[in-house]
Design goal:
This protein is an all-beta fold. 0% of the residues lie in helices and 31% in strands. About 6% of the residues have low confidence.
Length: 196
């Protein structure tokens, strides 16, 4: 229960204003090692491919029977290549139709969804039903509850930290296309840790 730690809310953060609402604004660490959010398919670089497209703005069929068992997806999101093979998109998952096995974006993506099913691949994140591998976690933002599947039995010596980022750590402001004040900048002796 995150409320016991003094947390009052976990609002979504929109880091890509024209590409839907991105919710990759939280990370969990166990003893300084980042843990993996509950996802389908499992693994950092594993993708599944989409089936038929019903609406180029964000409704497509899943080829995986796994998606039929997903319940509440209002706090879930998708990463993937939906428009072009070089364009990596992130967006909230709006709804799921288990009967037809279709997924719909909460917001349309700028590039839409292309018809080529071979290149259209994605991952789904923050799904309670996919909390099935040690080190995975899930956040219920509405009720401020963290679900965690630790890799071993935890003790009082173990340290769990939740990194929540609402603002950029560093921000440069430019006033024209070629701002000489913001060129050739070098950072030395700075360590950003446990960031999202």
């Amino acid at each position: 229960d995150l409320k016991k730690s003094g947390m009052e809310s976990l609002d979504y953060v929109d880091f890509m204003k024209n590409k839907g609402e991105v919710v990759s604004d939280i990370s969990l660490f166990l003893n300084n090692k980042e843990q993996m959010i509950a996802q389908w398919p499992n693994g950092r670089a594993n993708f599944t491919t989409a089936g038929a497209t019903y609406d180029k703005n964000g409704k497509f069929q899943s080829k995986d029977p796994e998606t039929k068992r997903w319940g509440n997806v209002k706090e879930s999101y998708l990463y993937g290549f939906f428009s072009q093979d070089y364009n990596f998109d992130k967006t909230k998952l709006g709804e799921i139709d288990p009967e037809n096995n279709t997924l719909t974006f909460a917001h349309p993506l700028g590039g839409g969804i292309i018809q080529d099913t071979a290149t259209r691949r994605y991952q789904a994140f923050n799904l309670l039903e996919e909390l099935d591998v040690a080190s995975e976690w899930y956040i219920d933002r509405e009720n401020l509850i963290l679900y965690y599947f630790p890799p071993y039995e935890l003790s009082q010596n173990d340290k769990i930290e939740l990194a929540v980022n609402k603002d950029p750590l560093i921000k440069f402001t430019t006033y024209n296309d070629v701002d000489k004040d913001n060129m050739h900048i070098i950072f030395k002796g700075i360590n950003f840790s446990k960031t999202v």
